Each structure stands twice: as C-alpha cells, then as structure tokens.
Amino acid sequence: LKIVIEVLSQDLCCQMENPQDVTVLDYGAGNIRSLLNALKKHGVEPRFVRSAADISEASKLIFPGVGAFGQSMGALQKLGYVEPLRAYLKSNRPFLGICLGLQTLFEGSEESPGVEGLGVFSGVVRDLNKITDGDL
Q1: Closest to 97 measured CA to CA, from 50, 58, 61, 44
Q2: What is the pLDDT of residue 32?
Q3: Residue 3: per-residue pLDDT
Q4: pTM for the model
C-alpha cells in the first residue's frame, strides 16, 4: 500500500497546477501517516476536512480509509459529509479514493448488507474470498 500511495501521490502532485491545493478527508477511519508522508515528500502540505463546507470548497480531494464499510458510511452520515461528497464527485474535480475511500463510491458492500454507499458507481463491493471463477 505504501508503494501505491507513493506512486499515486507523485502522479497526483506532478499533474496539478497548484500541488499545494489538496484536501484530505480524514474522519478517523484509518491511519493516514503513509499518505501524509508521501504528500510531504512531494512538497504538499494538505488541508484537512473539518466540515462539510471543506468538501464543497476542495479543488482536489483525497479520501483514504481503513475499516468496515458500514461504520465508514455511518461516520460520513453523522458528520454530514455524504451529500457534499456526492456533489464533489459529480463536479469532475480531481479525486483519489484509497481503500475504503474507493469502496464507498459503490452502491453498497457485501460486508454491510443494507448500508447504502455513495452510489457513484453501480454495483456492490464483493468479498474476493467468496468470488468463484463463474462470478468473474
């Protein structure tokens, strides 16, 4: 994961007009130290989401996350971040979802039946250990 974050952050930073203008959505769902180290290595000191308005105002958003899908979506709901995230994603601004940050873009997850995701992509995140050759 550290290598992937390093490559992605380098690519993200190099392609930006203003690499300092990066916002990280850290809502307590995981360790973001590797991400921050990779960004700092490329001269980026990101802003952090502290309110729904910060998502709406972001020009480039990174959404990392570790943990359970249902708990993550619950935290996003409680903080009032779901609708601003959906609006941000529809706006075509740069977005990098890492791990759970990417999974939440789907309609749901087998991990948390009945919990609605952001619904940017149709489909449900599946457990790779339960997928058979016939499912591919």
Answers
A1: 61
A2: 85
A3: 46
A4: 0.81
